[in-house]
Amino acid sequence: KKMAGFEGAVWSAVHVFQVAKTSSAVGSTEFQYQMTSTVLIDMPVKLQNDAEINLGGVITKQTQQVCTLSRDVSHLENMGPMIEEAELNLRNTIEGVYFQKTKE
Question: Sign of torsion, CA 16 22 26 27?
Answer without folding.
Answer: negative
